[in-house]
């Protein structure tokens, strides 16, 4: 981090008291300016968004030059500012309004100059033809922009200036701002070439300290003909006439800082008078004579219009100063991204904002006495709407390390155009305005503030907790589901989350064993009195924060990475040779790697259930490829592959949303709600009226909306990882049966179909028989006393681990709050007695024996102990994280919202997703199973069993 100069330390004052608090304020203000863009677009009847300010350009050229004077004073020689140095420059001159209007309208004018020094270094200079800003600080600037948004007519402008502005900033400030604006806009402009343009904010100039700069017309320019002010583009015409016969030049001058009273840095509304701070000419900007009406000139002007100028596109030596400038980085970035279709804003209708507050309060009061799941279907759905609103407001915690204060940066390189229509391999560029968001390595977020208590890592002993409360003594089945549901969720989790571990035997966690116990930490190792397993690799954290920030080695997006891999090398290795679109298969099965485990995108914790899912969706990818080739013969193999990736990933997301989740949360309200997430609400006028009044965004399925991160950068969270600990779904043994005649083939234990043994089992049994065997058998219930025994002595990467202990320890060490704090953080009443957790006498006795108080109860134990709502396969508390994050995974994803469209997916691809589902995937590759699938339920519900054939 660059050391602050004396000027920054002495004279910069951060709004709200600190750089980080100011950054958060500026992010809110940036979102407000995006709203201004939308209002201006509607008012102008425009087909696309314009700049928040300076929407109408009079000139855009790429062939200007900036040359520093040979006699540049020694004190001002710094960086690119050297005597005689000359650089190419891009220039844009414009009207200041955010609405394109006639040049004769009362307005300010501005100039933006990009000075190109090297391929990596440039400097953006922005100035306006009035020496002071109407706003002292960023808050006033945004308040004025909001007040004047859409003000195309005098009555609207008057309403903004005399009603909206005083309400926002107060009468006295509004009066001063109106006076500044009136003085600036009454200034008659006959030629943009004859105007002086002031920076109005300070920048550093190396060791010379703060300066303001201005661009003043250079003497000797030929006057243009008198323009016709009735022409709405007369200022453009004037420049055309002048440049047709002569250069247009400006002197770049700097005013040096004197003192905080006469030349303040933080106050943009105070003039640095030349009598106090003389304007010293340092360079000349020359726009060469040219014909602006040629195809070449028009093309150049079009490219300039696409540029995003920002005073922070510079170097540390020329860093902008003052809060107006600090705000400009976030504001300009947001505005440019919004204008370019890289960042989106979903406005909430006024009726929703007004009506939601009392309705939400009413539901919160009602829920003290009656939980949402005991209400009628429509009331339950509406209750969930307000619960999700509250969760979005209070339970999305940003863990990213943001720069505060802002730092200069080079002009960002444009994204690879191919990534506008295809997912990247590592999850970058899903959000094109924040390319790293949600990518491989990005930090896990939080739904609840972390609680870091190293003194409680082993309290109570996690091994004791596991043995007393998790160990499976008798298999407890989930009778509404089949084992495919268990395989599916592991298949999904491998796409979503993975914490990197230190290599086995390097950096470990040690858990002391209760007295009399021993454990072998490696298959052939000695018996020890501690249980040892690999520690997670953490991410660096800012000073003063606990060391509990972890990166995701998977991408956070729903991008099918478990099938395709998390990097380009892996992805290409899984494809057929010579760049073919299809995935490699050997007679319909995944190829086997050197370890004996198949080659696929993610193969940790491999077992027969994962083999089934990966094989099915590798086949599905190839089927999509074949269909695309047939429908679009001119598509190249790379396009076929990338489109098939999009289709299969979206199909997986849809299956999870409208099939797996309603199967495990089997209630009418949830079935309607989850289908609404994808397809929009049912055709009921009452349901649609309720949504129109309270949550208009839900009137269409999420794929029909714009991306929305709801105020925090998108990521999956540590709390999400915790509630998806569903290992009890896995049985310890499996009966494999033949689907034609119902005959038993064999009974196997989990370890018999784990790791390298899995692929031999699926090839021996056959995919159809394995699917049938899993379809007719139940997984375990997600409850206490039902953790798979096979996973309590499980070999992984040279370690022998008890996965139930690992889950408990990881949750504690990652700072996930204990169960009671978890409840409170998700807006539920705290548990006061152990009796509130369970009515089972044996479990109650064990809880009291293990935990000294109910506040010590581990989150996983509390979630498993809860009595879930009728039809639910897991707890209502876990469900709260689910309803927040399930919609977020869809809503944040560009490829599942704004770019879920035929132009990107192809019409065939959209149709494949919208008409497809788990049943269609199974039947496409195992058509003999058609009569066995449930008629009216999803493929994750129990299938029809074939009675054993009497003659066999």
Automatic annotation (TrEMBL):
Q: What is this protein called?
A: Catalase
- Give one Pfam family, short name only: An_peroxidase
Cofactor(s) demanded: Ca(2+)
The cross-references to InterPro entries, in alphabetical order and at most eight, read: A_dioxygenase, Catalase_core, Catalase_sf, Haem_peroxidase_animal, Haem_peroxidase_sf, Haem_peroxidase_sf_animal, Oxylipin_biosynth_metab
Q: What class of enzyme is it?
A: oxidoreductase
Q: Which GO terms describe its biological process?
A: defense response; fatty acid biosynthetic process; oxylipin biosynthetic process; response to oxidative stress
Q: PROSITE patterns from the entry?
A: PEROXIDASE_3
E.C. number, please? 1.11.1.6
Keywords on this record?
Dioxygenase, Fatty acid biosynthesis, Fatty acid metabolism, Heme, Iron, Lipid biosynthesis, Lipid metabolism, Metal-binding, Oxidoreductase, Oxylipin biosynthesis, Peroxidase, Plant defense
